[in-house]
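DOMAIN: structural biology
WANTED: fold as tokens
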Amino acid sequence: MSNISSLPPELRAELLAVVGPTRLIEGGETLEALSKDFYWYSPVLERLLGTKVAAAAVRVSNLEELKAVVSACARAKVPVIPRGAGTGNYGQCVPIHGGVVIDLTPFDKVLEISPEGWFRAEPGARLATIETEARKIGWELRNMPSTWVKSSLGGYFCGGSGGIGSVTWGGIAAPDNVKSVTLMSCEETPRMIKLEGQDANPGLHTYGTTGIMVEIEMRLAPRFDYDQMLFSSPDWSKLLDWTDMAARNMQWSKRLVTMFQDPIPTYFKPLLKYFRPGEHVSLYVVDKNSADEVVASAAAAGIDCVCRLRFSDPPKPPYLSDYTFNHTSLWAIKSDPSYTYIQAGFGENFREQFQDLHAKFPGEIVFHLEWFSRRGRLGPGGKPGGDGVVVGGIPLVHFVSEARLQEIIDYCARIGVGVNNPHTYFLEDGGHHPDIEEKRALKANLDPLGLLNPGKMRTYPFNPFAEAAELSRTL
């Protein structure tokens, strides 16, 4: 079966009957935009995905419309690619084999925010809406991406893994963060299954290949009133030591710990008034009741607090978190298009690993670090990682060639730096999936026709749209 680059007439008629002409998009800039995400951060994905576009996109606003659209696509044997707000970076919503992109952002109700500390929402719900409403009753999101103002809940669960809040609560898949996920199958008569607690993990971060999320429940964290602070020093090692200590201080209730090596701060144009030339910067978001103590600790270490802003309620800009995680990459690429990035997890010997990478690739890597809770992470030998935090991050890399980029990734592995490769659209190669067998089994159950985002799960043996040679290369 070849790529589906245009709608079969019968399918087009069915889709029109469900959503009408204004929500069936068959061409132009809107279809192009709905077939893309921010994959272009990677020059490799730009080469692989830049020309990919769906035959059509459909916007659905409720479960009945979604069922009808999926049923029609299943009868026509056409690929189905669910998408949210499109703020991801891995080509997760880019149609490899054409077909129909289903835009779930209008399917966006926040159904319940419980006083007991959890919420229930539809996949298109904006994280900003959930955060704002939860804070009104004493709660907040446990974790969210730096794109939380625009991101949809389903898109985050399908393509994200952590973000702001992860320094305390771990990523999405950490124990007790997810209450439940309800998935819909891609069949002529769609089925629903509800996965609860840790049983939901095989449905997370799967690019919509293992079912279409129709409802999500997630536990919340107690709300804190935060101060957002920037700390600056010309001494990388001194700032690193203090930042690492501050991240590990469990007495300070924190939401974000980030560190930027010079010249990264110079790319944050709206913040330039706070920075001093040639200095490295750390960003710390902490409970306001601990903020004075944090500032005093930094001063005692010879480090200056150069900016202190309150995180307001209801939340409103400016957010210093807009410069963290992959927003850092965006600001850098806007200033210098030669940059790309890797996603790294460092060991207990992270200082030595930094020195090793700088020595091996002088001038090619600029460090952007993030601190994460060990909750739910595995340590040596596959054992639970225990308490405390680990150092990770999204270092910037000056792109020379695809071969050089792969050399950097391979060298990271050689010295014990884990890399979630952001330069592939294959699910398995872009992250660590110890439950990949469970993910494949879930896909087999909910996608018996192989229509859900085909081509993204490299080790799945059934892709009806792949050429035989292409399929053999991916297995």
User: Anything to note?
Assistant: The CA atoms of residues 10 and 76 lie 8 Å apart. The radius of gyration is 22 Å. The first strand starts at residue 24 and ends at 25.
